[in-house]
Model the fold of this input.
Amino acid sequence: MWLLPRLRLALARRPWLYWLLVGAAAALTWWRVAALHDDAERARASWGTAVEVWVVATDTPHGQPVAASRRALPTAAVPVAALREFEPDAVAARDLVAGAVLLPADLVGDAAPPAGWVVVVVGARAPHLAVGDTVTVFVGGRRLCDGQAAGEAVDETVELALPSECAATLSAASSTSEVVVGRRG
Done:
């Protein structure tokens, strides 16, 4: 109980002791901040070199022009298909969230199916497909037609964009025969 008044009296009689404690607290704080900064720099360096990619600047609904900006991100955090080039008049193929790395599938463009084609969901054996990949559809061991991947394979189904006459034939034949989708390279 008497310790605090004695300490105050000692600091009042010896101001150099007060400033010594203040300096020690400042040095300790500086040392800790420097250590945290070094830890952050080491973590950043462990992610690899930075890569310039395009990211969505503002939330963009489907069908609206996309506002994007270039940002340097660690290589480990960048998807392989991230856009390195961006057309200023690009239109969103789906709802986009600000800060998301832009991918070709996010924009309406070459990956969009041609006019008059139909997007169908097919239960088929298929290789790993990316949106826009050119595919060939086989039914019962025969080549049916060529098309385009409109979505990634999910639960042994895949979305394909096909000419309308091919889609009609596929829907009729798929119930009786096995469907196989091949990616064309």
Notes: DSSP finds three helices and nine strands in the chain. The mean pLDDT is 82. The longest strand covers residues 142-149.
